[in-house]
Amino acid sequence: MALSLDRYPGITYDAEPPVVTDLEELRQLRKWEAAIGYRIFGAMRWGQLGDGHISARDPELTDHFWVLGYGIRFADATMDNLTLVGPDGQGVAGPIDDGVNFAAHHIHWPILDARPDLVSAAHVHTPFGTPWSANVKPFRPISQESCALVFDQSMYDGEDLEVTSTVGGEAIARAMGDTKLCILRNHGLLTGGRSPADAVGLFVTAERVAEVHVKSPEARPISDEAAKEVSSSLYYTDVGWRIFQWLARDLVPDPSVVLG
């Protein structure tokens, strides 16, 4: 397929993530989604302290991933200012003069290494995800959106809030298992997706679920049976990607801004 990265595709009920077989086109698509994802986070006023990252596995160098260059505002993210990071944490392409976001390497590389089914992970400190994580409790089915995650979540109970090496990331990866959401104790939320769009869409959903939990501490959950019915009817495999489409059009109305 010929990529058209200067505009969004139409949203329809039967829309699906694009299937791209050319490796260079797939690399461009993943970088495009990651850059827009950063801008979505920036528009939500997340990451203002430099506290977050979105990764995009390179489709050819599969043990490398792209991440926003260190010191660049989320709101300024473009495809050209993403850095390609190797397994050793060294930048090999893109902006590298100011170093590499080592926290991103310590967390994302072990997760992507352990999970070949994932292309991307997203993590940023947020107003509700971080306080909810301090409860060290999983989400419950207390809202429609929470039904997308209650059967696909995990908890990392480590106290290493500053992940200073890939050893910490490996521990997170083990705790995460095969789930798409991991609640990091006293730290915040982390999601994994089959694309950067998928990971970002799931992350924003998780933050909204955390908001409901924080604001409704005495909420009465629905039954697991009812929650599974909601999950199966509304929250299917590509739900993160579809949520990303709505977020992007609202918060980054002109996708050409990330083309450099």
Description:
- A hairpin with a 5-residue loop joins β4 and β5.
- It contains seven helices and nine strands; from the N terminus they run αβββββαβαβαββααα.
- By secondary structure, the chain is α+β, with helices and mostly antiparallel strands.
- α5 (196-215) packs across α7.
- The protein has a five-stranded mixed beta sheet, sandwiched between helices.
- The radius of gyration is 17 Å and the shape is globular.
Oligomer: single chain
Strand order of the largest sheet: 1-6-9-8-7
Order of helices and strands: HEEEEEHEHEHEEHHH
Kindly name the structural category.
alpha+beta
Instruction: Please report the number of helical segments.
Output: 7
Beta strand count: 9
Arithmetic mean of pLDDT: 94
Low-confidence stretches: none
What would the principal axes of the Cα set say about the shape? globular
Largest sheet: 5 strands, mixed
Beta-strand residue fraction = 5-15%
Instruction: Report the radius of gyration as a whole number of Å.
Output: 17 Å
Work out the helicity level: 25-40%
Terminus-to-terminus distance? 22 Å
List the helices and strands and how they pair.
Blueprint lengths: L22 H21 L8 E3 L1 E2 L7 E4 L13 E4 L5 E3 L8 H13 L5 E5 L4 H5 L19 E4 L9 H11 L4 E4 L3 E6 L2 H20 L8 H11 L4 H13 L9
Descriptive key words:
9 strands; 7 helices; 260 residues; alpha+beta
